[in-house]
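Teaching assistant here, posting this on the class forum so everyone can see the example we discussed in section. The complex has two components, and the goal was to see what a joint structure prediction looks like when all of them are supplied at once.
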Amino acid sequence: MALILTEEEQLLKSSVSELFKSKAPIAALRKLRDNKDPLGYSKSLWKEMANMGLAGLTIPEAYGGMGFSYVGLGQVMEACGRTLVASPLVSTTLLSATAIQLGGNENQKSKYLPNISDGSMIVAIAIDEGRHHHPDNCNTTITDGKITGEKTMVLDGHIADKIIVSVKNSVGDIQLVVVDAKSDGVAVEKIEMMDSRNLANIRFPNVVVENILDSYSGSYNLLENVLDIGRIGLAAEMLGGIQEAFSRTIAYLKERTQFGVPIGSFQALQHRAADMFGEIELCKSVVMKALKAIDENSQDLPKMSSLAKAKLGETYKRVSNEGIQMFGGIGMTDDEEIGFFLKRARVVQHTLGDTNYHLDRLAKMKSY
Amino acid sequence: MEKTTSKKDLKAFRKETREWLDANCPASMREPIAGPEDVYWGGRNSEFKTPDFKIWFEKMHEKRWIAPHWEKKYGGGGLDRMEYKILTEEMTKLGCRKPLFSFGLSMLGPALLKFANEEQKIKYLNDIVDAKIRWGQGYSEPGAGSDLANVQTKAEDKGDHYLVNGQKVWTSYGEKADMIFCLVRTDTEVPKHHGISFLLIDMATEGASTRPIKLISGKSPFCETFYDNVKVPKENLIGTPGQGWDIAKYLLTHERQMIGGIGETHVPTPVSDVAKKYLEVKDGMLTDNFLRSEIAKFEMDEAIFDMTIERVIDEAKAGNNSGALSSFFKYYGTELNKRRYELFVACQGLDGLAWEGEQFKNGAIAKQFCRTKGNSIEGGTSEIQLNIISKRILGLPSR
């Protein structure tokens, strides 16, 4: 498949960009932060996104979704990255709906997917147990339909209606189970993060399970498959953030004068900017290639996912750092928005594995 | 009007092409080339290294596939774009070498097609295809490297000829070149970019001489060339007086695509394979953690750079032409190649630094390592490419 967008995908990209520019600019995130909004996202925006079909974008039409490609969802993620949209899109659509589609049986899909599609159900996925991404380290157990354990860094865990939890069964396999967030014993502790989004640590002391997602028929394992798709989606979001931060920085280099000339005329800054331009070209390619790999159900998905997450993590870190440096003192102020990209860059870097995690994974795939 | 071939005919063309290549390309001409000495360059004093080189050149020449996409009157095969693509693909599939390596084919030819008059095209293009002339490039001068327009080699108009005086440097295989295409200054009164002309100089002319430059790699692929009262016929001027800079720029884009191009069909050994061979591996992991992460980063960038070539080609096919990106590809590709050889050396340790000896392939890695350092200098330095990206793509202001 050629590494370009179809007309439909192009159209989706421009319509969501318009929506986010008018309804969810960075100012909207700032307001949620300053008001200490208990939800951490705008319910009316999520409703509007659901009405546009975004909540169920990749969900089949039979379950109320749009049946759109993951390349399409990638364009929405990219647009979210540009204005740093806070919404349940990552937790609910990108990760949880994907997990249910891949691992759920007919009944389970019918139970959850239509509610996700219409925006009425928020689903979080709880897969980590420490401060670093390490999905293999799973000490949450399941016995007689009840789970016990403690999960960390659960994206949107504080607002979820359902929580998908990774658990180890009696034979040592990792499974994904669905828990109702209101079940007895579920204890949610909300954590405010640097990027003004919310994570939660959640305890499950002998909590009853609603469903086990045990109908996976893909080529590796359900959890890794879901995570790989999630990582690629996050990489697409990062691509949006990187491009936005970079174009704001270039604009500033042209506008800010010192010593009587625009600072963008200094070669020391030009070469750093030109070098970043090249890295961003690489980022565009790997994200596109990885998104296509999801839609093509490619054997290379794990590799593509780690390449994308590693490269985008590295580049977002660099571009967000250079953004602050090139904006100078003004970049250090809270009034200037460039700092929001620095903050998001670090949190998203550590979500579902940072650059080092994925480089290590890539090396292991090639046995070195 | 360019002719186009129907889909059905293309299918037949592919089949015939594959069969012809398979029947006519000698087995040894399907082996990867070992380096610049292992190809046929043509020219007045040319020799075929083995009989197979001769057979392959003559077969392809007879088939008119030395320059398959040039018009027949210029010695080409008259193939359209799709046919040419199919031929290239089939040659790649069978591993067929190019029958002739020639700066005439890859660099001068395209410039002549665009800027020369009909008489010049017929004469020089046919000579290139017949491998009669081996060409060299005379752009750089001791005082005109990155500042290429600072050409000082003078060509004075003497009525029926130009009188050339000056010096060129970094002429690839200059001592073997029969003729050189040169940038010369024909006008000193106008701004420096406007006084340059494009002249073809026969190195057998009295007053022309060469001296090889020995590189840090121990090899001498480049020459200095000297011009002391060299008489060049007026008809050797390409384009109009003062048009040299435009021709040079056009030609440089072809050169940028060619750098590293000798290895075009040669896929380098993966760095991680070399690492596993020469370094300690425990539980499927290199024990040198620092090198391991450097290799992983390199292989990430290498893989994604290839995807970027793929993406930009796909975008170009869809009509989004990003021509300015050639500077990015030149910059990134050459920097990547330098990283590759740093890692080869790091993996092989002192074995990789041996300079002579059969067991070390006569220092192939060490010498190639040294040679790669020139990749980011020749054809416009990395810094020049970054300048071009800043100005032409990012629109950052000049001082």
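For the discussion questions: Chain A touches chain B at residues 2-4, 250, 253-254, 261-262, 264-267, 269-271, 273-275, 277-278, 281-282, 284-286, 288-289, 307, 310-311, 356, 359-360, 362-364, 366-368 (CB under 8 Å). Chain A has three domains: 7-117, 123-213, 222-365. Think about how each of these relates to the inputs above.
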